[in-house]
Amino acid sequence: MYSTDGITRINASAAFGDMPWDRNIFGHFIEHFHTQIYGGIFDLGSPLSDENGFRMDVIEALRELRLPIMRWPGGNYVSDHHWYEAVGPSRIASYNKAWRVEEPNTFGTDEFIKWCELVGCEPYICTNGGNGTAEEMSNWVEYCNGHLKTRYAEQRRMNGSPEPFGVKFWGIGNESYGDWQIGAKTAAEWGPYVAESAKMMRAVDENIVLSAAAVPDAEWTLSLLKSAGRYLNLVSIHGYWDQIHQVEAPSDYLTAMMQTEKPARMIEETRHVIGAAGLTGKVRIAFDEWNLRGWHHPNGNSQDKIDARALNDVPTTYTMADAIFSAGFLNACLKNADIVAMANVAPSVNTRGPLFVHPQGIVRRTTFHAMKLYAEHIRERILATVTSAPALTHHGNTVSSVDALVSVDVDGATVTIINRDPEREADCAIDINGRELKGEWQGELLTAASPDDFNSIERPESVVPRTVTLIDDGGRYRVPPHSIVMLHMSATR
Ligand code: AHR
Fold it and tell me: Domain limits at 412?
């Protein structure tokens, strides 16, 4: 468990596990909330946008992350979204009862598909499992994927897309278990509702990859899987750990670090529920909303409550805590890549996202740099990795001060080391497949002068990764405090 001699021991061995992983673990989520869509990825009036109104600087930045999949349009929003209101030549604004604001409907299915094509990512559409119906969901599948001369496929053609979009990934509902959701349902209602919706969606396109809203809770998810598990590929779970939805009071660095081991526990709990349903190997996990910090949107319709959503944009919120939490989250998914098929940072752009967008440009927040290191350097297979490190404690809570991951391919290995301690170096002994690591190794380091450093419009590159060379000192490597290190080992050396 925790080492007591101050040394961190990282042991990785293919003998204990050597598994491939799905790049959709590096996925994103974007919602019709505040400035994620309008003023985020889509801004018809901006000189930085193309003829479609897509911010091209945003697309280029997301291509840096090799964005594999984007979940859209919500989130709570989708539980009162009707897709047919946002297609075709005349777009009449709607009142969205989830977010209690006007939805212009000028960014709809056709715009989303075109945007995904420009980014080079898969679209993942979450359907309205709130006040929506099985009919509405399956008609959306026909609009996107229908190849016959039938009503909704013909509508798509009339809207300018003769060929089917071929949307592979679909979700049924968003958090329908929660009373905050428009059209929330009981566990007894949810299973049959999902079964009927899935049946109709598959009747339109039997090849879709289908998820449904779930939680690591037996009553809800076991009931869901008993009723609808045979139609599903994935169960969707969400996690926001710094719960500041109502009061914008972001946790400090050490408080945030105490949250870092909770995602792995959620994955394990969900794994057990899938196993209890007898669906291990058939149904996997889509962690399709995750972020250290909950979005800020205090309850209420008054303008001041709606305006408070701008507090999500305060740059000082997004420090090394966010980057280090996010790296640990990705480690948890990669270490469980046998059952985690997808994960989607929530959201991708603005609110709490890795990328902040303003009228004159973009800011790569600390989490952007962490996610880019993962997108660029995690190799094809994950070795089973056991880490014994000093404990990090705060206000009666304890986590390991270090989390590590070793990934390999035919060309070599990458050792990812996260040092959560805000003050102390990690003194690491590294053993890969029975060989103690020694010598000089190059890699990348993401850290900052302070754990509370951040990037902003004024200082967009205060926190950026840099190349690093680590040399062993008696077989041990020193990793700086509050940092993420990726060391690359060549197979030929
Ligand atoms: O705070 C944003 C909301 O968090 C998303 O819309 C929803 O899916 C989750 O509850």
Answer: 7-17+382-490
